[in-house]
Every structure is written in C-alpha cells, then in structure tokens.
Amino acid sequence: MTKNAIESKSKMWNLWHGCHKLSAGCQYCYVYRGDSRRGIDSTIITKTKNFDLPIQKKRNGEYKIPSGSMVYTCFTSDFFVEEADEWRADAWEMMRVRSDLQFMMITKRIDRLRVSLPVDWGDGYDNITICCTIENQERADYRLPIYKDAPIKHKILICEPLLERIALGQYNIGSWVEQVVVGGESGYDARPCNFDWVMELHNLCMEQQVSFWFKQTGSKFIKDGRFYTINRKLQHSQARKAGINR
What we know:
By secondary structure, the protein is α/β, with parallel strands linked by helices. The chain has a domain at 1-113. The chain has helices spanning 3-8, 30-38, 85-97, 137-149, 195-208, 235-241; strands at residues 11-13, 16-17, 46-47, 70-73, 102-107, 128-133, 154-159, 179-183, 193-194, 211-216, 220-223, 226-229. The strands form 3 sheets. Strands 1-4-5-6-7-8-10 form a 7-stranded parallel β-sheet. A 3-stranded mixed β-sheet has the order 9-11-12. Strands 2-3 form a two-stranded antiparallel ribbon.
C-alpha cells in the first residue's frame, strides 16, 4: 500500500490522555497548551471513552476502523507513562487482535518498553511501529542505545522538537532505523531550530540510506544565518519547500 493510500485511511486512537513532562522537549508541550485553554490538568492521566476504539463495531458488525488503516496511537499522552501500566496489557491485546491495522506510537519513555510486553511479543508485532523521540544530544545518547537493542520490528527516530545539533554517526542508524523525522518547535515560546542541524541529519540519512522527513520548520527558524518567525499555518508547507524529503 502506498503512503498516500495509508494516510487516506488513517485514524487517531488516544486511548488515554495526560502525561508528565520528562525532558527538555516537553517544556512547551502542545498537549499542555491545548489543555490549558480548556481548563484541563494535563498531569492527570485518564482512560478515554475511545479506549477500545480498534475493536468497536458498527451496527452491521463491521469494525469502525477499516482494515488497512494507519492508527496513530496515544498522541495526547505517552503510551509508556507509568499511570497507564494497568491498562497497557489490554491495549496490546487490541493491537494483536487487529493485526490488519498498522499502529504507530511515539515515546520519550523507551526505557519502559519492557514493563508490560505481551508474552507472545518476541521481537515485536509486525503491525506496530514504535518511534523514539530524541530532541537533543543528551537524550539521544541516553535513549538510542536502549532503542537500538529493543525488540521492535519497525523503528523511526523523531527529532522533534529539534533543539540543537545532534550527532548520530556513531549509532549506524542505517542498519536498524526505517526513517528519521525532523521538526522545529511550534508555539509562542518555541526555541529556534537551525536549518544547518536539519541538513546534517538529512545528509547522514542519505549516506546511510534511511528515509528522511523534514516535517515542520517550527515557529522560530534560522536559515543561512537569518532568523525567521513562521506562522503556524505555514510551518509544514515551508518545510516541504526545502525539497529534502526522501
């Protein structure tokens, strides 16, 4: 199935909501910003009404999420947040049952992967991609050795928000990473992203034959020594104009 075909059938599955800020990339979290506007305490982790969405059915007995869909999982929390330990086994089971769906999640807690893995996990389920966030060198050097050795079939690095130059050459990502996603930080208080940092990661990916996606510029962007403030609506399109996605 092509990327466009998958995206046309994509669904969002936020099975629990809320999280605790863990590292530098969490400082201006978009979930916290949105919750603040609605008067919601983001530090309280709660199971949502859509917890069992993958196995919900229509009146005619068909699943609400059609076969072949990409399911973006737990994007208003962290799948491995501590308070969700008691719910995670049921979540894994739904993903096992719906082996006809592709599930993708992003975590800053890759060091908690093994807390509640299913007994039949082995080296991972074929239909699950677990992405690891590395926003700076310190987090890269802590998380990547764990991530590299983790039993996961499909691995994607998320360098977002990219807060500084990150050197990844020593990790030989071409042998185990499927894609690197890079993006600046959004929001009024965003920290600047430098295009030089983006290109260094792009060039490494090209050298090691890893797919690369420059997702967004962020609100504050530096290119060729010039500082730009970029409207939220334009941050993705301006990144695409760079023409470096492969």
